[in-house]
Amino acid sequence: MSTLLPTPGAPPRLPLRRPARGRVVGGVCAGVAIHLGVRVAVVRWVFVGLTLLAGSGVAAYIFLWVTVPAGEPDAVARALADPARARAARPNERPDGPDQPRGDGRHPGRAAGLRELTSRLPLTDIAIGVILVVVALSLVGSRFGWRVRASWLLPVLIVVAGALLAWSQLDRAQRGRLLAHAGGRTPIGVVRILGGIALVALGALLLVGQEARPRDILPSAVAALAVLAGAALVLAPWWLRLITDLGEERAARERADERAEIAAHLHDSVLQSLALIQRSAQNPVDVVRIARTQERELRAWLYEDQPRSDTSFAADLKAVAAEIEELTGVAIDVVSVGDVTPTAATEALLRASREALLNAARHGAPPVSLYLEAVPEQVEVSVRDHGPGFDPDAVAADRLGVKESIVGRTTRHGGTATLRRPPSGGTEVRMVMPLDLTGAPVAGTDPTPVAPHPGGPR
Amino acid sequence: MTDTPAAPVRVLLVDDHDMFRAGVRASLDAGLEVVGEAADVDSAVREVQRLRPDVVLLDVHLPGGQGGGGAEVATRCAHLPSEGGTGEVRFLALSVSDAAEDVVAVIRAGARGYVTKAVDGHELSAIVRRVASGDAVFSARLAGFVLDSFGTQSADVAVHDDELDRLSAREQEVMRLIARGYTYRECASELFISVKTVETHVSAVLRKLQLSSRHEIARWAAARRLL
User: Which of B98, B140, B152 minimises the CB distance to A303?
Assistant: First the structure.
């Protein structure tokens, strides 16, 4: 099939997949265009042209539609190239998979695109397919001098429409492999199947019982149904077996995938770290640092839902703490309660927190504690170190500049920052940043309006 | 902290890693006597019932039993009197896990506290003594979990002391300080109360955590399991 198509060379070819975006009917043309590196319009015209040649374009299209799996070519290529990232890429592979809350939350753009797609599919699917088939059939018919009779054409069209309806369901099921497995068959899928069966049955009846009266058609229809039911009865066990086998196979494959992913991750991170530790065994400071970094990474991977970097202030803050930990080798205990979406104000708070952490790690005594408490109205960050025996004057002098940068940064955005020395020792920096509910900073203790000089000198 | 009882505190170590048990055994100080070890749920239950230790150091993840891990041990051995003293057998959860549902499950099953395995021997000994004397032990992270599930806003503050589903203002303050990395003693001096009062507040929070039917606990743990 594809040998008929123009093949300009684009050396690192993307795999042949039917993307969800930019499709009109089944995404075949778009997929082929991406695969071959040519413009979609060219491919479409080629298919239209082929259709005029005894309808082979339609046949090619349907063949590709059925055989080419759906998916985003670039994501698939990435997944193939880098198995460690397969987890990130996989959701794209099954754009019509069950509505997992995580998937939706993380790919808002994709979810919107799908919704648009599902609302568009049934109409275009059927209309364009039927038109193409009619054109093709009439062309073939006229070529062979075959006079198309209305009594034949209408039933055939009905059968074709029904088949299309049912096949579009298959396509859908194929795209969302997990859909049927998880029992998440949508009502629209059932409607498609039932509608398809009804249309095909109606078309077949009209086709077979050309001139017969309805009274004669009925018994034969009943007989046909009885035969079908009998066949279904005989085939049911085999079919059920097939379904179970398929499910088991699929589950096994998923487990294998997961194992491969875990293995890839362990190889990339844990084994590398262990090798590093062995090599630097004579340097305890390095060993502790490497082990600590690895522990943090593994914990994040195992226990935490990794939010996108621009949606979670808590995640940003943890990243900053990790960075400081790496930089200074001092362990930081992070406790976070609640979360907010980052804004300009929290960005300032983040930078101030970084200063405070760096300071605590460099000049204070461990353990260093970082505490975040976020509610929609305000974010509070507290950085505490436990210095049992330090010289308060030296520290005060040392921290004057930092104090300025922490306090100044926070107050410019309407927040407050206080440097405290608890009677039991150590130092605590508490920064509170009020947020209004739209996320923009509001005037707190600082009477200066924020907007006119963002980040400007005070 | 609390005064060391004349008799050594009898400790049972429950962990499925031999190396870890050996490490803990070596790091505990002289005032603590390790009377036994167990490596899975069933043997842990058996040993607890046989030995009646003062404190059980309980790993959250344990093989065997019904698959409930440390929480299952705590549930199956709830309210057993300890042999030496007049108190009950008390459980202290030790875990490498940061997963909220693990920690909360074992606390709700009756453990008196939760510490991470990174804790050093000296600190662990002090904590074991504190648990043996009936106090609750909260790490910063557990305090964070508590604040997360009970809420931090003023609307979440209990009006009456006997409300199980909300923390009192004082309890919230204590939890905040612990989450910030303050020790009990530091909390006490910060709030101008005695260490004993801090311990009372922490025990009250522990009780609420164990008895509260607050739906957030379930919902929040469930939300975190969606990994």
Answer: B98
Based on the domain organization, do B53 and B132 belong to the same domain?
yes
Per-residue pLDDT 10s for chain A (458 aa) are 444 444 444 446 777 888 877 777 778 888 888 888 888 888 888 888 888 877 778 888 888 887 777 777 777 776 665 444 443 333 333 434 344 343 333 444 444 444 444 444 556 666 777 777 777 777 777 667 666 566 676 777 777 777 777 666 555 544 454 444 444 455 666 777 778 788 888 777 777 776 667 777 778 788 888 998 999 888 888 888 888 888 888 888 888 888 887 777 777 778 878 888 887 878 888 888 888 888 888 877 776 665 566 678 888 888 888 888 888 878 888 888 888 888 888 888 888 888 888 888 887 777 888 999 888 888 899 988 876 544 445 555 555 556 667 887 888 888 888 887 777 677 888 889 888 655 444 443 333 333 333 333 33
Closest chain B residue to the Cα of A100, Cα to Cα: B226
Residue where a domain terminates, one of A249, A266, A284? A249
Residues B101, B202: one domain?
no
Residues 273-302 in A contacting B (C-alpha not used; CB under 8 Å) = 299, 302
Q: What is the pLDDT of residues A73-124, one digit of tens each?
A: 777 776 665 444 443 333 333 434 344 343 333 444 444 444 444 444 556 6
Domain boundaries, position B118: 9-136
Between helices B100-108 and B140-150, what is the axis angle to 10°?
A: 90
**Does A311 lie in the same domain as A233?**
no
Give the strand pairing for A378-385 and B90-95: unpaired
Distance separating alpha carbons of residues B59 and B38, to the nearest angstrom: 10
> Are B147 and B124 contained in the same domain?
no
Whether residue A454 has a cis bond before it, omega within 30° of 0: no
- Residue pairs spanning A and B at CB distance below 8 A: 68
CB distance A422–B185 less than 8 Å?
Answer: no
As to burial, measured by CB atoms within 10 angstroms (0-12 exposed, 13-18 middle, 19+ buried), residue A416 is middle
Q: Which residues of B touch A102 (CB under 8 A)?
A: 226
Let me know if residue A301 belongs to a domain.
no
Closest CA in chain B for residue A299: B98
B4 is a domain residue: no
Same domain, A316 and A217: no
SS3 for B57? strand
Measured between alpha carbons, how far is A16 from A27 in angstroms, rounded to an integer? 11
Structural domains counted in chain A: 2
What is the total count of domains within chain B?
2
The answer as to whether B17 is a domain residue is yes
Mutate to test the interface with B, among A297, A339, A371, A378 (most CBs of B within 10 A): A371
Residue B126 lies in a domain: yes
Q: Which residue of A has its CA nearest to B101?
A: A303
With left for phi above 0 and alpha for psi between -120 and 50, is residue A37 left, alpha or beta?
Answer: left
Task: Tell me, yes or no, whether B29 and B111 share the same domain.
Answer: yes
Burial B86-103 (b: 16+ CB within 10 A, else e): eebbbbbbbbbbbbbbbb
- ipTM for this prediction: 0.77
Q: B183 touching A, CB under 8 A?
A: yes
Q: Is residue B2 assigned to a domain?
A: no
The pLDDT value given to residue A105: 38
| Residue A130 shares a structural domain with residue A225 | yes
Contact A369 B180 (CB under 8 A): yes
CB < 8 Å to A431, chain B: none
> Cβ distance A351 to A410 under 8 Å?
no
- pTM higher than 0.90, yes or no? no
- CA A19 to CA A31: how far, in whole Å? 6
Query: Which residues constitute the domain of residue A189?
Result: 2-249
Indicate the residue type of B106: V
